[in-house]
Write a structure and sequence with these properties.
Immunoglobulin-like; six-stranded mixed beta sheet; three-stranded antiparallel beta sheet; 3 helices
Length: 162
């Protein structure tokens, strides 16, 4: 029986360590399913509507439900009000938008095929975007391996593109 516990403990230890291993910045997909980049070219971002989402107590999102207008330039501003690094993971949502610019703090990223963004304590991430595909998309603060250890501590929200 003790031989069975060793692999289980090893997997749990690896999962716990991986949760601590992510750092500031963006997680990318290797290949975009569709190239929406043309929709974000030449946009006057000073006229874009700003949609604010705060990451608050325990990684919860406020508001947890946000609406975007299809084919209109918008800036999603994510503010981490906590004192630890937080994740904004929304792979399906990111595949449904054209991304013009991504910043985390004062650093700009060139990646456009996003899966998630890490937001450092007290920092702001901005995604300059044009929503393309209508639908309802979820976002969460869930590094996948952490959900194995803490399945009831998942924080999530919804984005709707109309």
């Amino acid at each position: 029986m003790t031989r069975l516990w060793r692999p289980i403990l090893a997997v749990l230890a690896a999962a716990a360590l991986s949760a601590c291993a992510y750092s500031e910045g963006v997680y990318i997909y290797n290949v975009c399913l569709e190239d929406f980049s043309e929709h974000a070219k030449g946009v006057d971002w000073s006229e874009a509507r700003i949609v604010e989402v705060d990451i608050v107590g325990g990684g919860e999102f406020s508001p947890s439900y946000v609406k975007f207008k299809q084919n209109e330039p918008q800036i999603l501003r994510i503010t981490n009000t906590e004192n630890r690094l937080r994740l904004f993971r929304a792979p399906k949502f990111f595949r449904s938008i054209a991304i013009g610019k991504v910043t985390v703090g004062d650093r700009e990223y060139t990646e456009r095929c996003l899966a998630a963004i890490n937001v450092p304590p007290g920092a702001v991430a901005e995604i300059h975007m044009v929503p393309i595909d209508q639908g309802k998309y979820d976002f969460d603060d869930d590094p996948t391996l952490v959900s194995i250890l803490y399945p009831f501590e998942q924080n999530f929200g919804f984005a709707v593109i109309n």
